[in-house]
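Quick review question:
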């Protein structure tokens, strides 16, 4: 919604190809606004990237329906008289089915990890993005060691993070 009635027609609205969200804490407080992110399966380093819409939209409606998130309508320009877009974009919300199952983590007698307690969780990355991470497993290393983590893959991942 524009800050004032004149800002839309006066060109005060920026057309974006991103959305922002803010999580609400259990106490009803609003966390900072942020762009949702995913991991590009094509990126070997598995760096995080912002999710983007296929078309820039001003004044769109974002709607969750079951396991899907829909971006409806909006205008491709803030210029007065430009018709609303007639397209809908959607994204599947990944759930527990996207999560691999971690089975165990254990240390071996020799390796380069210094003493300490190490915590591991595994997430699968597929063409739909990064799924939920497994439960965390911990390993205590008393002397320089190597740690092996075993998990059961969920859906066919293109990478593991």
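Suggested answer, residue by residue:
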């Amino acid at each position: 919604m524009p800050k004032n009635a004149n800002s839309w027609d006066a060109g005060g609205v920026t057309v974006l190809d991103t959305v922002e969200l803010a999580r609400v804490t259990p106490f009803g407080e609003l966390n900072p606004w942020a762009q949702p992110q995913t991991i590009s399966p094509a990126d070997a380093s598995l760096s995080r990237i912002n999710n983007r819409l296929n078309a820039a939209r001003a004044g769109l409606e974002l709607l969750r329906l079951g396991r899907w998130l829909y971006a409806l309508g909006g205008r491709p320009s803030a210029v007065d008289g430009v018709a609303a877009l007639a397209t809908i974009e959607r994204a599947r919300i990944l759930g527990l089915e996207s999560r691999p199952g971690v089975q165990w983590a254990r240390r071996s007698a020799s390796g380069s990890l210094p003493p300490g307690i190490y915590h591991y969780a595994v997430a699968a990355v597929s063409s739909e993005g990064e799924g939920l991470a497994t439960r965390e497993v911990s390993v205590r290393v008393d002397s320089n060691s190597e740690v092996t983590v075993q998990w059961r893959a969920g859906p066919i991942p293109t990478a593991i993070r």
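Why it works: DSSP finds no helices and twelve strands in the chain. The chain has a mean pLDDT of 79.
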